[in-house]
Amino acid sequence: MYWHDNWGTPMSHGCVGMPEWRAQWLFDWTPQGTEVNVHY
């Protein structure tokens, strides 16, 4: 995840940028056992 304070302004280089409340919603919505790939 890429965190910044300028939401609505293109700042990411392909990273998933979202507010913390949206990330929590996604976490709660995703079924347990879902594969997640993290690249850094």
Structural commentary:
The protein is mainly alpha-helical. The chain is 25% helix and 0% strand. The chain contains one helix and no strands. It has one helix at 20-29. The chain is flat, with a radius of gyration of 12 Å. The N and C termini lie close together (10 Å).
Notable characteristics:
about 40 residues, mainly alpha, about 0% strand, flat
H and E order: H
Largest sheet: none
The gross shape turns out to be flat
N- and C-termini, Cα separation: 10 Å
Work out the helicity level.
25-40%
Task: Estimate the mean pLDDT confidence.
Answer: 79
**% residues in beta strands:** under 5%
Q: In a nutshell, what does this entry contain?
A:
With 40 residues, the protein is mainly α. The protein has one helix at 20-29. The protein is flat.
